[in-house]
């Protein structure tokens, strides 16, 4: 195996390995999100924040690994083109020798046949020009921004609230008289910040 072919093999192996690591990080992210929901149901908001930070870190890790895998795959494609071009050069050397003999003898039939081979060789290869992308940027962040943590907590809380509502809606409602229904008045909703909203949802989950 030549140097180029060996490099091509190593790059393809690295791209495949990074893709698997990315998929593993995605699974770990889902696991951390499940832990968030469980911690919130138990009223452990601070622990839920830790899990949320872990989930965001795993999400970013999966994205970075997948991006790097894709870029390595693009490089291996260019090396594959180089290997193909080298093989083409070997084949072309034989065609060039035949062309030399044909032109020396001025055999028109032979010249026409060799030209057909030339055209076939060039049609088989589609050379694409391009430049290498810049190397991958920053590595995986250790800590997640607080805003991202809050947004994830809100998302999990909304999801948990939706599941709770679906569970309640599936239960039969107690019968009420017309007088009781008329006596009911709508309860005004007050504006609340994120922490208050999370606490209300935690109480609903525990009840």
From TrEMBL:
Organism: Schizosaccharomyces japonicus (strain yFS275 / FY16936) (Fission yeast)
A single GO cellular-component term on record: ESCRT III complex
Region (Disordered): 165-193
Amino acid composition bias (Polar residues), ranges on this chain: 165-182
InterPro entries: Snf7_fam (IPR005024)
Name of the protein described by the UniProt record: Vacuolar sorting protein Did2
Regions crossing the membrane: none
GO biological process: endosome transport via multivesicular body sorting pathway; late endosome to vacuole transport; protein transport
């Amino acid at each position: 195996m030549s140097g180029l072919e060996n490099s091509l093999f190593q790059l393809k192996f690295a791209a495949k390995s990074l893709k698997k690591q990315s998929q593993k990080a995605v699974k770990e992210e889902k696991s951390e999100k499940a832990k968030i929901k469980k911690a919130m149901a138990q009223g452990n908001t601070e622990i839920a924040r830790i899990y949320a930070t872990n989930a965001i870190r795993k999400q970013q890790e999966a994205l970075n690994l997948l991006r790097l895998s894709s870029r390595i795959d693009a490089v291996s494609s260019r090396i594959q083109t180089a290997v193909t071009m080298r093989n083409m050069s070997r084949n072309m050397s034989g065609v060039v020798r035949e062309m030399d003999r044909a032109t020396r003898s001025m055999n028109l039939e032979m010249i026409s046949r060799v030209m057909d081979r030339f055209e076939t060789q060039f049609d088989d290869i589609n050379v694409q020009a391009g430049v290498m992308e810049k190397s991958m940027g920053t590595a995986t962040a250790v800590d997640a921004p607080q805003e991202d943590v809050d947004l994830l907590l809100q998302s999990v809380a909304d999801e948990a609230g939706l599941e709770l509502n679906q569970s309640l809606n599936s239960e039969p409602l107690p019968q009420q008289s017309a007088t009781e229904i008329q006596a009911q008045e709508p309860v005004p909703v007050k504006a609340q910040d994120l922490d208050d909203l999370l606490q209300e949802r935690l109480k609903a989950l525990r009840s």
